Every structure is written in C-alpha cells, then in structure tokens.
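INFO batch 0412 | record 1 of 1 | parsing
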Amino acid sequence: MASIFELALGQEFGRLHPMLRKRFGVDVEAGYGCVGQGVFSEVRRGAWWTLPFLHLGTYRNILFPEQGNNIPFTVENYPYLDGFGRPTLTFVRTLGLPRAKKRRFDATMVHSPRRRGIVDYLGTHQHLATDLMLEVLADGTLHLQTGALRFYEGPLAFTVPAIFTGTADLYESYDDERGVFTMQMQVRNPVFGFLFGYRGEFTCTYPLLSDAVAPSGLRPLREEIRE
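INFO prediction complete | emitting tokens
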C-alpha cells in the first residue's frame, strides 16, 4: 500500500528528492519508521501579545512560548493503524530547550479519501484538525500548508474563526552536499502576523517496525473519527 503522502501527492510524489521520498514513504506495509535527530538553529515567536496564544498551546502539545538558538530536537514518524482502522502517521517533534522542560509538537496524520488529501490532527487529543495542502517545488522540496482549523469535542464541531488561528507553512528539503535534511516552519495569523517559527537540520534513521512499533507515547490520548 502507498504511504499517505504518496496517496495525497499522486504522480507528484515522484518529483520529491529521493531522500524525501524515503522519509515520506513511511507506511505500515513499507515496514519502517523515520526518526530524525538534529538542531534547530533558531526557534522564535512573535511580539509579546502572542504569549497567551502560545502558552495555551502547551496544554495539548501544539505550541509553546520559549525561543532560542541551537536547540536539539527529534522528529518521530511512525506508521500505525488507529482505532478506526485508518493508516496513520505520527509527526512528533520534541525540543530540548534550556531552562525548560522538553516541549513537543504533536500531530497525527491520516489520508482522507472524502477530503481528497491528508487530514492533520494537532495536539494530544485530536481536538483540532486541518487539511494539508501539499506542493512539490522544482528542487524536490516538499511544501506543506495548513488550511482552516476545525474543532471537535463531544457534540461540538465547528470551524475556528481565522482570527483565532494561524496558517502554518512547512518546507522540508534535503542538502546533498552536507547529507542533511532541512526544515523550516512559520505560523502566521491573518490579522496579527507572525506568531511562531523555527528552522533547522537533521539526519534520519529508519527503524524497522518489527523492531520498533509506533511507541504508545507518540500516539494521541484520544482519537477523533470526524475529519
């Protein structure tokens, strides 16, 4: 079976850099995961008034207020079938910030035939979901952009007004000369501008699923069937 990124990109998947095809080819049937370790050369936030928004994000491993330079991090991509039988991919980034406990961005992604692409659930409880718009650039870079944010909890289901959210743009590339993956991301609000961002580089290992099934600590504490 094709990975969720191959399903979403179709023929465009073949235009990715070969190392990105391996990284985003992670799937249960492919039999391996992808674990990256590296350094963020910069993690930064917006003006002081973004702090309440960023602090709120720490409760569900979505955002955090700290910033700094040369911060070690890991990114863990493991495929598994969730409780609804959907092929799912973890996208968990853990940062070792100085003078702070470890901070995480938690996301789980599924391919949705109904929405014709990847649905990205943010945080530990899958309360927030967004569609990912994918683009392969001329140099084989993958550009991921989030769409409107949807909130699900109990009987509640609504699209979050844009003024209370941000659009995330993530670029993943591979540097052939240095043999490293590069990553840069920024979140912007349509009214308040820049909220949060980072850039860095990392190398990857590809653990076999027979040796390392998706760790339970990377999976959401609650799963949401609504996309």
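INFO post-check: The chain has one domain: 4-218.
INFO record closed
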